[in-house]
Amino acid sequence: MDCLFVGAGAIASEYAAGLSSTSLSLAGVCDLDGERAAALASEHGCPSFTDLETALERVDAPLVVNLTSHAAHAEVTRTALAADRHVYSQKPLALDADVAGELLTMARERDLALGVAPENPNGPSQRRAARVLDDGRPGTVRLGYAHAHVGRVTDWHDRPDSFLAIGPLYDGAVYPLTLLVSWFGAVETVRIADALDSWPDRESRRPSAPTHVEATLSFRSGPIVRLTASFYAPHRSREFYGLELHGDDGSLYLHGTGAMETAVDHVQFGRVGREYTPVPPQSPTSPVEYTDALERLAESIADGTPARAGGRRGAHVVAVCNAIEDAADGSGPVDVPDYGTTRDRLPGTGVRPDDTDGHTNGRDGIRLPSIGFGCSRYRDGEYVERRDSIATALDAGYRLLDSAELYGNEHRIGELLAAPGSPNREAVFVLGKVWRTNHRREHMLEAAAGSLAELGIDAFDSYGLHWPDAWAHRGPLERLADQPIERQEALTFPGDDGNIETADVSLETAWENLEAVYDKGLTRTLAASNVSRSELETILETGRVRPAIVQIERHPYLPRNDLVSFCHDEGIRVVAHSPLSAPGLLEEPVLEAIGEAHDLSPAGVVLAWNVTRGVVPIPSSTTDTHIVSNLTAAAQRLSPEEIKRIDSLRQPDFER
């Protein structure tokens, strides 16, 4: 689709630079500064103009991109709409809410698209923060603090006059306002506001609008947010465009409401009573491009459904800024028209089986996060308490918990899942496993029901055999973590003098018993752990319900690529336990070398190696920094050559 750029300043060059990677093309450039228009137009082989009416007559471009100065936005948009052109405007849509409403009406009556910057709700950090809200972790959000420290525009902009004329609301506050309206819907009332004229005496260029504004906003959906917008506070101050939201159950921190790129610590969550934990990305992310919004608007035009949601939100944001100015002038609480804007649907985080009847078959496929968290208490030859580390994992964003009755801490996990600040049940995939001593049907059904009661959930997302072989039953495995170690081991490792007493329960029978757990609705899918290919084939050949998950030990010393490929061919997801604990693995030079190229530790390289191969690793850590860095590694993808180098570490005779 052809575009006509109106305005050829610095921001126009940013938009134009991204056009080559889109289906859009620059058909003309218009700017009052003829030399500036001609320079940009020559780079893209299109004509330039100094008069908008002439440009609209000569350039048959359906989409006008309004990149003029703040005060000119409204008139340029009006002219373009009058010429029956779709418009995407830089922020703000206008400086007056009534004018913004007129433009919105004009676009609607002519069935034209109207989009308005910023598109920051689609930024990678902003979407990650939105998922925290969608998880329900903060609980009901009642209070927020938003900053827009634009800084001294005379220091960082070569043409600051447009900024100095309008103040920090219409250029800076629009970022947090746009994001907050996207998440919570319309602002209902500006409760109170104040405006200051702080500015250095030495500056010769002086603002004609207040340089520092503070306001308290009441959103119709409930939150009260204090907004600070400033030209005086430096943009390199501690809070640039930071946002902090406080709910009944926890707090969410976003480093930059207007950020186009992301970093590990740009989103953080802290449940009540706990420190903030970074919430890193778990999949590859890309920065937002200026042209992304243009492409989406162009797609709506091509589909015959020209979008105006951005225009409605942009008009409402202008109305909020107007109301803040009125409140600062002493008008008291000021109501804000919504112009039809509504909150956006938050990006979903559901990872549980997507089914309609409570069951799903392995071949149907299931949604799993790229990485999970192992909850075993056994580490380095001893049992350790895992409550804090599991809480940190949930706070950081892990959404698959690997549990088992052998671990003896299902009740602790259940307490965490039910605690304020934990994600909604729909956002967490809970994998459980029955121990070898409970392979008989009555014992297995009792074990599954008992585990669910301890976890406080209605059904497992997947429940499986911890191991394929059966051992003698020595009693229920209830809250092993609370029992003496001698008692724990007597129940879980039956026998004398190191000789395990087995039970006469075949794999086929054990799987049939597991299917009974499935039939009773105690699990939505089935899993098999620590199986060989031949054992898995036995399950597939004799079983009625296919496994959705196979969990195996997998790391570069023991890659088991044949079994992984077989599972993938059969539509079975592979989960890798013990991915980092093989002795000597993390000292391998090849892992360190690859890690340097990706800013990963050797452990991170191993996790990325698994994820790149479509395997879900479930590392287990008790260190907060490792918990976060392991999760961060899941966002990395390795090249085929790097995968091959890591595969070369395979040790055919590896044993623990």
TrEMBL record:
<feature type="region of interest" description="Disordered">
    <location>
        <begin position="331"/>
        <end position="365"/>
    </location>
</feature>
<dbReference type="InterPro" id="IPR020471">
    <property type="entry name" value="AKR"/>
</dbReference>
<feature type="domain" description="NADP-dependent oxidoreductase">
    <location>
        <begin position="371"/>
        <end position="649"/>
    </location>
</feature>
<dbReference type="InterPro" id="IPR036291">
    <property type="entry name" value="NAD(P)-bd_dom_sf"/>
</dbReference>
<dbReference type="InterPro" id="IPR023210">
    <property type="entry name" value="NADP_OxRdtase_dom"/>
</dbReference>
<feature type="compositionally biased region" description="Basic and acidic residues">
    <location>
        <begin position="341"/>
        <end position="365"/>
    </location>
</feature>
<feature type="domain" description="Gfo/Idh/MocA-like oxidoreductase N-terminal">
    <location>
        <begin position="2"/>
        <end position="116"/>
    </location>
</feature>
<dbReference type="InterPro" id="IPR000683">
    <property type="entry name" value="Gfo/Idh/MocA-like_OxRdtase_N"/>
</dbReference>
<dbReference type="InterPro" id="IPR036812">
    <property type="entry name" value="NAD(P)_OxRdtase_dom_sf"/>
</dbReference>
<keyword id="KW-0560">Oxidoreductase</keyword>
<keyword id="KW-0521">NADP</keyword>
<dbReference type="InterPro" id="IPR018170">
    <property type="entry name" value="Aldo/ket_reductase_CS"/>
</dbReference>
<dbReference type="GO" id="GO:0000166">
    <property type="term" value="F:nucleotide binding"/>
</dbReference>
<dbReference type="Pfam" id="PF01408">
    <property type="entry name" value="GFO_IDH_MocA"/>
</dbReference>
<comment type="similarity">
    <text>Belongs to the aldo/keto reductase family.</text>
</comment>
<feature type="domain" description="GFO/IDH/MocA-like oxidoreductase">
    <location>
        <begin position="127"/>
        <end position="252"/>
    </location>
</feature>
<dbReference type="InterPro" id="IPR055170">
    <property type="entry name" value="GFO_IDH_MocA-like_dom"/>
</dbReference>
<dbReference type="GO" id="GO:0016616">
    <property type="term" value="F:oxidoreductase activity, acting on the CH-OH group of donors, NAD or NADP as acceptor"/>
</dbReference>
<protein>
    <submittedName>
        <fullName>Putative dehydrogenase</fullName>
    </submittedName>
</protein>
<dbReference type="Pfam" id="PF22725">
    <property type="entry name" value="GFO_IDH_MocA_C3"/>
</dbReference>
<dbReference type="Pfam" id="PF00248">
    <property type="entry name" value="Aldo_ket_red"/>
</dbReference>
